[in-house]
Write a structure and sequence with these properties.
Layout (H helix, E strand, L loop, with lengths): L1 H14 L5 H8 L3 H29 L3 H25 L3 H30 L2 H26 L8 H26 L13 H14 L1 H12 L1 H18 L5 H51 L7 H29 L2 H32 L4 H17 L10
Amino acid sequence: MLLAFGASYSVGAQMASVSAVLPFLLAQKGLYWAAGLLYPIFSIGFIAGNVLSPMVVARSRRRQNMVIAAAAATIAVLTSCIAAADLRGVLVAPVFLLASAVIGCAMGMANNAYAEIISRMLDRPRRNHLLLTQEAVGAILTVVATLMILPLVSARDPADSRIDVLWLGAAAMVAACAAATLVGPTTSGALRPPQRFVDDYREGVTVVRTRSWYRLFLATQIVFVPISLSMTFFSLRAAMSHGDKAGSLHILVISSAGGLFVGAVLWRRVFTRRGVRGMLVLSGAINGVAALVCLANEAFPGGEQLWIHGVVFFLATLANAAIGAATVSWISAFATEERRAVLISFAAALAAVVATVLGAVLGTMAQATLAPWPVMIVFALAVLATTVALRAPDRPPTP
């Protein structure tokens, strides 16, 4: 049931991706300003979910599965609301933005509750195997589901056919809710009492002042924010060029799922051989290549090609998939167990603030024109991230 939940949850998250699918849909409505704000607002909601999750998990006692079930159900309802607003053209921007914030909050709580469940039910090797397997299975299911509906979209209005992706995402989250309900309670065990957010903030500031490794970690987190936001940027560029083509969004979803599938295999091997530094350097380099491919596609004499935008999405997703794993590995190597969650949360909150500002800027740049300079700036930011990542630890010692 854990695998069923994880795979279904992954499918739902990909089908209603805040960084790729929803910005594409908003761009088709001409709401580029709102499209650029989706991921930053989602990030703020995600941080809020992280702040609330200790209290929610503690009160759930052994029924953490009901926390992830409620989160999946909430995301399913909100995804359906987004689809309905897009279909009817009513309050599109407010519904998309508000739903993104609440989805972020629900995912923040679900991720922490799910981590608690698998830590109680599985040992470390089995946890790693489960996480990699569910990501790969989720990517495969996403591709299969999208390919099944792709032949049906050519005879329909492109705007209506794109919403099918959202309905599939909502259905996947309903399946995740059902699977989470069947997981059952976890084994008993004491949970640490949650700290107040202000205490977590003070502890994070103290570590920033006293630990040089954490200052480097935060700097690296900040320069990699554009890598996370590049999916939204490339989604808007694709929408400007291919928004009126039937099946265009479906191709991008398939490409993104392919990036997740390959990433599940690639980043594990890179970490084994090259550590955190290898993951981050290669992530930045791959994102830079994605920007160059996008630039070449837009300069193509015969017009932009949808399949090349699919390659861009594949590369951007592949690059983004490494950041979270590298972050956890870096923190795990240097931080003590009792400080680990606080420091990750503090870094994520700082990254969310940066993403709020930078997301609006990149969203504005993406819609400016099809001139090459916005893509060149994204490429320069990828080069900057790669350069800073050279200072990341290779095989850092455990404290």
